[in-house]
Amino acid sequence: MHSHICDPESLLPLTPAVFHILLALAGGERHGYGIMQDVAEQTDGKLRLGPGTLYGSIKRMIADGLIEESDTRPDPALDDERRRYYRLTGLGRRVAEVEAERLARLVHVAQSKRLLKGMESPAHKG
Amino acid sequence: MDPAQCCVACSVRIYRSMLAVYPAAFRWKYGSEMAQVFQDACRDALWQRGLPGLLAVWSDTLPDLIVSVYREWSFFVREERILMANNDNAFGERLAQVLGEDPTYYSLLVSSEPSRRMWELVESLALEGDPDQPETALALFEELSEGVPEEQRERWLAGLKDAAKRMARSLPVEGDETLANRIMRMVYADPEIYELFAAVEPGNGLLELIENLALEGNAEDIETMLHLMRLCALESQQNQIESV
Q1: Mean pLDDT of all residues in A1-11
Q2: I need a labelling partner for A80 at 20 to 30 A (CA). Which of A26, A117, B36, B156 fits?
Q3: Residues of chain B contacting residue A55, judged by C-beta atoms under 8 Å apart
């Protein structure tokens, strides 16, 4: 079942799990464990996706057209052919971009209200 | 096999068995990958941190399993309702199919839904006129009608009775079979169907139906009607039979 979503902003805000999976795949195709490792690295170990959350998110992201299973396979000598690889779709990349922009705007607001220590915006210094 | 490999293999076996609690479609699609990911995590954790690392994997995985199982079942029920909205019979049939496959799923559905909502689903099952699923509808009704106000229970039972009659009328006719014969066939196939009629109007419900059939002037059904009346006579209707 694939939904026909045209407006990336209609999916915002993303859940943390979905956004981090999109970030992990923005760096290239990954299999499930590779996504888990990337997410843990991106968050300094603060967000660890379990298999249930990971594949529940993957299922819904495929249904929404954000990611797809990759047809390309790595060298079988280097990897287990049973692993499935996933990659961003064009829509998935656009959704990741607009979510990142939304979060960047929030960071800017936090900076203007001096909530980010050591990261004051230039307009408020002095 | 060294002890580390043994620990990982044992953990993976246990985790695989726990995957059985997920909805079947999700488990078939992603179960092997989930087990593979869990195995990878166990191996890395054991290699990097030893047994404490493996225990840490379990401490992350168990809460994840509980939360994701609930989430997947919630999505499953919601998606099936969408199917029902688009196809009158799909949800009822699917619900009955799921319950038929594994009655433990019933407890999951009941625990996540108020009793009234579950009753609406049961009513839909009956009104859809699916002759293959009356047992499921009756079983659910019996359990859910406990504690329901009597007036409401009677109203729902009357609805089920009407639905059962429609079921009988909708059954494929075999040869020159009449409605009475079809009802008879239904009762023989599933004695609980008879209980359904008897429960709504104890002793009289089925008899009234038979009397109506007699008034329709179908002489070929006399034997069938007499047999059905004998069944009703179990509720002290013997005098009525003798008078006919």
Answers
A1: 64
A2: A26
A3: 26, 30, 33-34, 37
